[in-house]
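Sorry to interrupt, but I need a hand with the structure work. Go ahead and set the record down below:
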Amino acid sequence: MDKKILIVDDEPHIRMLLEQTLEELEDEGVALLMAKDGQEALDAIQDENPDLVFLDVMMPKVNGFDVCSRVKQDLNINNVYIIMLTAKGQEFDKQKGQEVGADLYMTKPFDPDEVVEKAMEVLGLESVA
């Protein structure tokens, strides 16, 4: 069964950077999906059932905290691993991320190697390097 990663960010250059960072996983059969706001993310999570979501916090329509809360609590979709990826690195924000059900909280700017490493770990892939 193929794995899916959903990249959610309202900034096109961040989406592109994450896509370029993770594109080597496509060789392992991983599909990369994109969403540019929280509502698109909710629709994609329900329609595509991704294994892993990189989720920005500050976005139009629905913010990342609300997306995470709806997925984990309201929709009760627990088989998706959600990584909050945001510039908001305060302890308060990290705590809020945990409260809404985020599995991990990473701050921007992010280390591309760390992103790939974490994605591979979550998806159960062997090291590509």
Q: What stands out?
A: The helical segments are 12-22, 38-48, 64-74, 91-99, 112-123. The chain has five helices and five strands.
